[in-house]
Design a protein that fits this description.
single chain; 438 residues; alpha/beta; nine-stranded mixed β-sheet; seven-stranded mixed β-barrel; 8 helices; 21 strands; 27% strand; elongated
Length: 438
Amino acid sequence: MRKYQQLVLLVISCLSVGILLMYKTENNRLKYVLKYVNFFGRSDAAVLRRLENGTKEELPQAGLWRPLPVWQVIGDSFHAYSAFWMRNELVAGGEAHALVVGKKGAVVDFRCSLDLPNGRSVQGKFRFNRDSIESLVDDKWSNFTSYHFFCQVSRDFGEPSGVSFTDITSTKSPVKLRLRNLKPKVQKSDAKVATLPARLPATICVDLVGFNMTSKFARNENAILQFFLFHQALGIEHFLVYNYDDLPEDVIRILDRTSIHLYGLPFNFPFRQTNGTVSRVRQLIHNDCILRNVNHASFTLLLRPNELFFPNARFAKDQEKGSLQQQLRHFSAETTRFELATMAVCYDERKKLLPDNVQYDPEIRAPYKSLLNRLELPPAQLLASSAEVELSLSTAFVHRYVDCEHVGSDGLHDWRNGVRQDFMEHIAILRNEVDLLI
């Protein structure tokens, strides 16, 4: 009998030790989480919100992708991607604005008309201009030219649903382009007071068209996932992805369980793309990105998945004190673009998180400017404006993760040496928030 009692005591002792060890392990894990998450502060709310597995809000901006852009043939030598409608503010009428490319040297000779909701069609006044980038690049590298087509009317006929451009030199029938209204629809609250929907703090347009999907970075789905999570930690939750089909399905499935909104946009470009056409194609995406976000977001950036935007503060919906929006208010309202310093950071796939890559090659020059666009001026002024300010490293910068196969004669530098201590602490907080999600 005594043997059975001793055996029972031994079993109880073992169970007690096991429970104690399990409790100690869970307690250590809880302490680790609480180390980075202030349970009564903003960081905790931000992390828990990103961990939610609930349905996403139905926001007015949910239609950022509509109507879906696609390259369509108009006439014999031209293709149109997207079209936008902007009603005049002080006088009657308005104009449709289409992004178009044409064969190099093709004659531009078009008529245009607007399709009204009641089935009517009204003739408009056609005009065009070449994109500003045409004067900045060497024509010998390209077999196409970028244009802006306009169809203008001087009377109010209601909001048109589409625009048609007819090539006078062609026998082909005109193709209707669906219009995106740049002015958001007024919402009526319960008190029947008409209000405009609140703008998003910022959005990011993701360029998968010029991104090398065979690179070491692209093959690491964890790295692509971090691109979205890091920018979400900054307060950016809406991403317009050009060439959406190239985004890995596993990444899409994971992001679908967060509060991140992805808008898939096709980009079936009709001309052959070469190294010499990169800047032209990127400018086309940039123009569509700007127009698509007008009156829906306060700021937008065009980035590739191997580029991380590091500002010294987060975006805030209410532009609270210390937010990035408030800092940029100090610049003139005419300033529409903020140029960001860009560092070519050596990517090591063995590093768990992207900010852990600390070496960069100062001799690798960025192939294009990284710009933070402020969307407060009218659309025509946004595309034509040359008011640009270069932000200091103490305000914001961009890391472009590259393979450092051939290091320059100056060697590699540590990017942290040029960043202020409080800025580094801000980056560390972002890093730890994303670390909890990976």
